[in-house]
Amino acid sequence: MQNLLRFLLRYHFTLLFVLLEVLAFLLILQNNNYQNTRFVEFTRNLEGSFYQKTMKVEQYLNLREKNRQLAEENEELRNYIAAHLQTGEDTFRRQVDTTYDQQYSYLATRVINNSVNKQHNYITLDKGRYDGVKPEMGVVSGQGIVGVVRGVSEHFSTAISLLNSELRVSAKLAGSGYYGPLQWNGGDYRYAKLGDIPLHASVHEGDTVMTSGYSAIFPEGVLIGFVEGYEEKGGRFYEVDVKLSTDFKRLSHVYVVKNLLKEEQDSLESKIPAND
Amino acid sequence: MINYLPRYILTFLILVLVQVLLLNNVQFSGYLNPYIYVLFILSLPFETPKWALLVLAFILGITIDLFAHTVGMHASATLFMAFLRPAILRSLEPRDGYQLETYPSIRDYGLNWYFRYAGILILLHHLFLFYVEVFKIDLFFQTLSRALLSGLLSLVLILLIKLFIKK
């Protein structure tokens, strides 16, 4: 017993170091593998309310710019409504039965934490489970797509940003309709790479890249960015450099996209026998 | 020692706030993230008990982690640095030892000494941190260059702070 005590006293520095370091690594592993453990949810709430407070100050400084962006978006939406009313679309039915032909609904949220300088970037939003946010919902801004919701707590949620090398989005070229996976490569936060475009597809600089709508997360045709350049990859496909339309360094107002028919589509597709 | 307690608490708070509110939001071209909060560990007195070094490092790291969304990473790196501090101090000890009533600072031991002391510890901290951050990805050289460049930037910032703010 005395020997044990003497040993502990003598090596207390190293022992304490090992103990705390093990604790730190347990936290890292827990945090990486199980996003929804209670501890992370706790820190997320704490952090959420903290950033909400600092964000309030920051938002005053950006009001002019945000007003301009919102006004632009309003104008676009008004034009869209006007154009569709004139074509004589049946708008009455839409109000009676919202699931009849409306597939997506949008929830306006604010970004309260965001990063662009890590390898795995995440965004924190100020709406959570109580507002109907669920994992696997898409996140878009007025400028283009932003990411996909991953973790949800009562009042906050975290979304995996498009600037995260673990997120792949199905994207297509607006002109030709050829599609492939779009992924960020961990470098410049303004660019992403679109792969698997066949060599016979005609690609031009400045072409629009948008979501394909195949994943049931994003509606079809949400802007992603524009073709900046392309090169042959492996002799069979083009790899296209896409300049992202969303400015990830200035995100503040975004929308969570709810696909009202997602369950129906998923359950139907799960019945197809997989034969890749 | 007791007299300096409020000052160290204040240093702790200011460094955490500057790191979390300012530096974590500023991006110096894609790769560089300076972490100046380690200045707290650098400036602790020579006679700080070793266990206190570790406990303080852990608290400091976990505080930064809470706000940077990286639970455990900064804590593990700061612990690593605090663990090596006594050994580094011993290896840089002047011939007549460290005097009573002095601090590990530029004023007491000169710019040359401080540059080596802070440089080595910041480099160790940054290397540990950046490799823990990528963890599963094997971008060895990219991570190395990010750690080295960020470490250099942190060192410059810390030297500037020490030179211009006489504490």
Describe this structure in words.
- The complex is a heterodimer of chains A (about 280) and B (about 170).
- With about 280 residues, chain A is α+β, with helices and mostly antiparallel strands.
- Chain A is built from seven helices and twelve strands.
- Chain A starts with a helix and ends in a 7-residue tail after the last helix.
- Chain B has six helices and no strands.
- Chain B starts with a helix and ends with a helix.
- With about 170 residues, chain B is mainly α.
- The chains are: A alpha+beta (about 280), B mainly alpha (about 170).
- The interface between A and B is medium-sized, with 38 and 32 residues.
Brief characterization of the structure:
With 276 residues, chain A is α+β, with helices and mostly antiparallel strands.
Share of helix of chain A, binned? 25-40%
**Structural shape of chain B:** globular
Strand count, sense and closure of the main sheet of chain B? none
Q: Which class of chain A in CATH terms?
A: Mainly Beta
| Number of structurally distinct domains of chain B | 1
Chain-averaged pLDDT of chain B: 84
Structural class of chain B: mainly alpha
Low-confidence stretches of chain B: none
Q: How would you classify the quaternary structure?
A: heterodimer
* Class by SSE composition of chain A: alpha+beta
> Order of strands across the widest beta sheet of chain A?
1-2-5-4-3-12
The CATH topology name of chain A reads Thrombin, subunit H
Mean pLDDT of chain A: 81
CATH-level-2 architecture of chain A:
Beta Barrel
Rg of chain B: 16 Å
Give the low-pLDDT segments of chain A: 87-99
Order of helices and strands of chain A: HHHHHHEEEEEEEEEEEEH
Tally of alpha and pi helices of chain A? 7
Order of helices and strands of chain B: HHHHHH
